[in-house]
Amino acid sequence: MTRLMSLALAGMMIAAPAATAYAQKNKPKPAAGILPAEEKRVANAVRALLLDGKSAKFRFLDFTARKGKSPRPYCGLVNARNAMARYTGEQPFLAYMTFHQDKLAFVRVYGIASRDPINPVTVEVRRRCAAAGYKLPP
């Protein structure tokens, strides 16, 4: 019994550093070009449109339109619970960020795509995100 516990403990000691290294290596990188305060404002605006906004998990993409005319498009991915309390999978969203003197003044969410590929909002969100240079998953 003592030998079995020793083997189990030794296995955990070997596996723990490997698991930590794997987590460090595969940690998602922060999105480039968008500040944490801007991420928070965009996330709050998207949450307001969701059925269960508290469940939302975001993946922020690199901000391709940091410079340019305001409002600037920003696309990201959100995974939230639906009416049946199941996560929908990552869905693209499109928000327009209005800046005043290089500070975020206003966020307006254009729409959140759905799994339905012929839904007009889904089609338009994907089209506008692609036109702005965002690479969305299929």
| Radius of gyration based on Cα positions | 20 Å
Mean pLDDT: 84
In quaternary terms, these chains amount to single chain
What best-fitting shape do the alpha-carbon axes yield? globular
Question: What is the strand tally?
Answer: 4
The main sheet orders its strands as 1-2-3-4
The number of helical elements comes to: 3
Helix content bin: 25-40%
**Ends apart, CA distance between termini:** 52 Å
Q: Major β-sheet, in short?
A: 4 strands, antiparallel
In terms of DSSP E residues, the strand content is 25-35%
The string of secondary-structure elements, in order, is: HHEEEEH
Task: Give your account of this protein's structure.
The protein is of the alpha+beta class and 138 residues long. Helix content is 35%, strand content 28%. The chain has helices at residues 2-25, 36-47, 120-131; strands at residues 52-60, 72-81, 91-100, 103-112. Strands 1-2-3-4 form a four-stranded antiparallel beta sheet, sandwiched between helices. A hairpin with a 2-residue loop joins strand 3 (91-100) and strand 4 (103-112). It starts with a helix and ends in a 7-residue tail after the last helix.
